[in-house]
Amino acid sequence: MLDHFGFSVHPSKFEEVVNWYLAALAPIGYTKQMEFPGRAVGLGASKEHAHFWIGAKEDETSFGFHLAFAATDHETVDKFYEAALKAGGKDNGKPGIREMYGPTYYGAFVLDPLGNNIEIVDNTPR
């Protein structure tokens, strides 16, 4: 199951792209759910969760995508992280609580062979 998806654009295009997606996705109820000014905007149709992220990055070589899978518990997050590294992925954030995303946000990040940021997250309240 997918939790959220995102991609990055050059800062000079950031506001234009965000505004375009806000307008284009308005008919299906998407609004701005979370914002890190000038760096990232999370859009979604639910007031509880941003499912689609747009980020700003200077380095065009890091314009790959970010994909997050949903887990049902911390153990699954840990197992994904270990399996992804064993399969050749590169660490991009060990499993742990990410309070900047919420008090129950337990996630891990791994770069796939192409450099895309793959995450798994458990948002289950403890």
Automatic annotation (TrEMBL):
It comes from the Eukaryota. InterPro entries: Glyas_Bleomycin-R_OHBP_Dase, Glyas_Fos-R_dOase_dom. Pfam families: Glyoxalase. Residues 17-120 form the Glyoxalase/fosfomycin resistance/dioxygenase domain. PANTHER family: GLYOXALASE FAMILY PROTEIN (AFU_ORTHOLOGUE AFUA_5G14830). This is Glyoxalase/fosfomycin resistance/dioxygenase domain-containing protein. It comes from Trematosphaeria pertusa.
